[in-house]
Write a structure and sequence with these properties.
Elements lengths: L3 E8 L4 E11 L4 E7 L6 E8 L1
Antiparallel strand pairs: 1-2, 2-3, 3-4
The structure holds zinc ion.
Length: 52
């Protein structure tokens, strides 16, 4: 089961903050990241949430 994250992401393409829903993933270093998609331009958004 994957966790959901809903909140602010920074879109590098729009250069603005976007509120989006994403999926929480944990990378090889144990850092939790939220992966979402910009609702305006469709660019993939990443946000580092910190250690699990
Ligand atoms: Zn965007």
């Amino acid at each position: 089961m994957s966790d959901k994250y809903e909140g602010d992401f920074y879109c590098v393409k729009c250069k603005e903050k976007r509120t989006a829903e994403g999926e929480i993933v944990v990378n090889a270093k144990g850092t939790r990241m939220a992966k979402g998609k910009c609702p305006v331009c469709g660019t993939n958004l990443n946000r580092i949430l910190g250690k699990a």
